[in-house]
Design a protein that fits this description.
- By secondary structure, this protein is mostly helical.
- The chain has 13 helices and no strands.
- The protein is extended.
- The termini are far apart.
- Its main location: membrane.
């Protein structure tokens, strides 16, 4: 009995021509082996062609992707970029990236703002010159023995000069030129105050390009600072937790039990508060000695800066003589102090949040135990009350 192959689409397309109502069935020619024309030979041929096409596609794909020469410049650049991106995602990379971002911003703002001179300098110079000329005219016009008349006219002239200087100070005049104000340490502190959102306000851009660049700089710098804040907090929290564990083991004389998993140590909130107190006290002493502030003002500056309040009434390195002499290392040290201080605050936040989570878990557990105890007491009271009632 020969295998009868089902009619295919090619067989169904053979209809009778002329559009008649009847159709002539198509007769499939039997193969010499007794089957239809779609027998094993045809199927084997199709399989071989399919395998050949698959092999050709595999060879093409291997030639396009597998045979890549790692010594080519494109591959070297790609590998280097992947390495740099991987390093920048680490904690050390984020810290280096935030410092590099601040340094690049400092040089950029120096180049933009130092070339635009303050108009208040010429205004105050004209006021000073006019005041001297008017006083000289008064001396020549009035009798030197008429002290009352001279004092009255001189007071009017000095009041006019005072009003002009006050107006110039409101517009940012501090006696320094643009190059003296926008030195590298000052520009570095300005960049820090932008992306950390402290905003001292003692140094601001005057040009339109500087203002537009500040907006763009803050848009990219604030997310980068948040990433630094989170990563640095985790690193410092891990280091301080390890140090606290070692210190507690040394003080109590206890060692890790063999065969058991290490017990997680929760750093108490008092330790975090002591760390903050020591860090603020260090800054207080340092700035009090450098800036000749009293200790209350130094503490006020450290707390308002680390808490990102930044009123701007106390800023290190604001001395005009030091600015003109170029000795502004205090601003660089202040930059490092604030940047590390932000990491210390993030560390304390992470450690204290663990304590809060633990306390909340204990509170939830105690609340459930208390509610369960109240439920048991109510059920017992209800059962005892109903058991004592006489049966009607």
């Amino acid at each position: 009995m020969s295998d009868a192959a089902p009619p295919t689409a090619r067989g169904r397309r053979h209809k009778t021509a002329g559009g008649g109502g009847g159709s002539c069935p198509v007769k499939l020619e039997p193969s010499p082996t007794g089957g239809s024309s779609f027998g094993p030979e045809m199927r084997d041929d199709r399989r071989s062609r399919f395998r050949a096409s698959v092999r050709s596609r595999e060879s093409y794909s291997s030639a396009g992707s597998g045979d890549v020469d790692p010594s080519r410049p494109q591959e070297k650049i790609k590998s280097c970029c992947r390495t740099v991106v991987t390093f920048m995602c680490t904690q050390v990379g984020v810290g280096g990236l935030i410092v590099a971002y601040a340094v690049i911003g400092a040089f950029t703002f120096m180049h933009i703002e130092s070339r635009a001179e303050f108009p208040e300098l010429a205004l105050v110079a004209d006021l000073r010159r006019n005041c001297a000329d008017e006083l000289w005219d008064v001396i020549q016009a009035e009798n030197v023995f008429n002290q009352t008349r001279f004092s009255q006219r001189a007071a009017v002239i000095m009041k006019k000069f005072q009003l002009g200087v006050t107006t110039a100070v409101k517009h940012g005049y501090d006696g320094r030129t643009a190059a003296e104000s926008w030195s590298f340490p000052a520009a570095l502190m300005f960049c820090l105050s932008v992306f950390t959102m402290i905003g001292y306000g003692n140094l601001v851009p005057r040009t339109n390009l500087g203002k537009a660049l500040t907006v763009v700089y803050a848009m990219f710098g604030i997310p980068l600072y948040v990433l630094y804040f989170m990563s640095m907090g985790k690193v410092l929290a891990s280091v301080f937790r390890w140090f606290y564990t070692k210190m507690s083991q040394c003080c109590t004389g206890s060692q890790k039990r063999d065969g058991g998993p290490p017990k997680k140590v929760i750093v108490p909130s008092t330790a975090c508060l002591w760390v903050l107190f020591v860090y603020i006290a260090t800054g207080t002493i340092m700035f009090a000695e450098w800036e000749k502030w009293d200790y209350l003002d130094s503490t006020y500056f450290c707390v308002t800066s680390l808490c990102k309040i930044g009123f701007g009434d106390f800023v290190p390195g604001a001395n005009i003589l030091e600015s003109k002499s170029g000795h502004q290392t205090k601003l660089v040290i202040n930059f490092v102090y604030l940047l590390v201080g932000m990491g210390v605050i993030a560390m304390c936040y992470n450690l204290m949040s663990e304590v809060v989570r633990l306390k909340m878990h204990e509170l939830r557990r105690d609340t459930l135990v208390c509610l369960d105890d109240i439920r048991i007491r109510l059920v017992a009271c209800y059962t005892r009350r109903h058991s004592s009632d006489p049966v009607v």
